[in-house]
């Protein structure tokens, strides 16, 4: 079953679950979600690259996200990884 990633459309009207994005496994015939199951605010489906395997995509996705949010600029062209 494919796993889809959903994310809050407006981060200011989101709960802890949808703010950072969450994964839902749905069959192809299921309708895509339009609102967060927790807080009912509008969500969008995030398109992911075609998967070779679930866990791999998952990891890449997480790594990418983590990288985005955790890089801190410490100097000219230098970035420090924050954990
Ligand atoms: Zn939510």
Which sheet architecture does the biggest sheet show?
3 strands, antiparallel
Order of strands, main sheet, comes to 2-1-3
Q: How many individual domains?
A: 2
Enumerate the distinct ligands. Answer: zinc ion
Report on this structure.
It is a single chain. This protein has 83 residues and is an alpha+beta fold. The protein has two domains: 1-47, no CATH class; 53-83, no CATH class. The chain is built from two helices and five strands; from the N terminus they run E-H-E-E-H-E-E. A three-stranded antiparallel beta sheet has the order 2-1-3. Strands 4-5 form a two-stranded antiparallel sheet. A hairpin with a 2-residue loop joins strand 4 (71-75) and strand 5. Zinc ion is lined by residues 14-15, 17-18, 36, 38-39, 41.
Question: Can you summarize this structure?
Answer:
With 83 residues, this protein is of the alpha+beta class.
């Amino acid at each position: 079953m494919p796993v889809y990633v959903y994310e809050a459309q407006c981060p200011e009207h989101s709960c802890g679950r949808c703010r950072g994005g969450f994964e839902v496994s749905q069959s192809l015939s299921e309708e895509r979600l339009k609102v967060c199951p927790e807080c009912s605010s509008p969500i969008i489906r995030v398109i992911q690259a075609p998967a070779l395997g679930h866990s791999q995509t998952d990891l890449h996705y997480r790594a990418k996200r983590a990288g985005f949010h955790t890089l801190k600029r410490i100097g000219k062209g230098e970035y420090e990884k924050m954990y």
